[in-house]
Amino acid sequence: MSAYFQPSDLFPAELEVEAVHHRPDVIVVTAHGQSRGCRCPECGTTSHRVHSRYPRIITDLPCAGRRIKLHLTVRRFICNVVHCRRKIFAERFGDGVIRPMARRTARLETLVHHLALALGGRPAARFADRLGLPVSNDTLLRTVRRYDRPPPPPPSVIGIDDWAWRRNHRYGTIICDLERRKTIALLPDREPSTTKAWLVEQPQIEIVARDRGGGYAQAAAQALPHAEQVADRWHLMENASHAFLDAVRKSMREVRVAVGTATVNPKLLTAAERLQYEGYLRREETNSVIRGLVGEGVSIKEIVRRTGHSRK
């Protein structure tokens, strides 16, 4: 048993405390990791080659009514494995100490989670403030969702389409889980090879909804030969709309002749269609008056004066 109390006794053994600074409302603890090396999260190889260092500020449990801020110096290591995709990686601490990308220690995160479960959003935020824990009600609710949300099941029905990183310049591929109605992947381009590489890693997919282009069809056929390919509803409606408009344009002369002899029953129109139809009738009446004046030889200036319409 140690005869003297050290500030480092309050912190995990993985951290080495360099200095402690006292302020009126906060205690700042400067520390760094004690391990000589770190394992690459990609290939698992331990590296001792330090690339660089960067600061990381972590909030810990309060002490004596004052908040505690950990100013960590985190090392970046160089992976020694040539074929590893992760050339440089940051120092990792145990999940029981500080989780990756976290801004609170694991023990503070656990306490925040229990407060949110017991009291909810705003009551837990007010109580946490009295305890010296600077967390908002939104943070508390996010903590509950993050801990209690089960991992999503692998998608079995997906939709693939292109989308614009920058319109008219750069396009990528968006992949959605159609059963959960969630975006699950954004690919950097719309090349069939890129889409195929992603689909190969998802052999459980049974249905692929896509546009009528050949690129995604080729990628799906090669990566998932067992999957059924269907045209999505949006592209079906879009293609049907284009086909209908093309047919109407080609037969516009016959359409004008047929519509010109027919009468419209205003009772069958919606409110918006009725307004549009009434405007059409007013324009037709005005045009008829103007054509009659032109036929009588009235000058344009006089027509403008009588009708109140611009010559344009």
UniProtKB/TrEMBL annotation:
InterPro entries: Transpos_ISL3, Transposase_DDE, Transposase_Znf. Pfam families: DDE_Tnp_ISL3 (PF01610), Zn_ribbon_ISL3 (PF14690). Residues 158-254 form the Transposase IS204/IS1001/IS1096/IS1165 DDE domain. Residues 38-80 form the Transposase IS204/IS1001/IS1096/IS1165 zinc-finger domain. This is Transposase. It comes from Allorhizobium borbori.
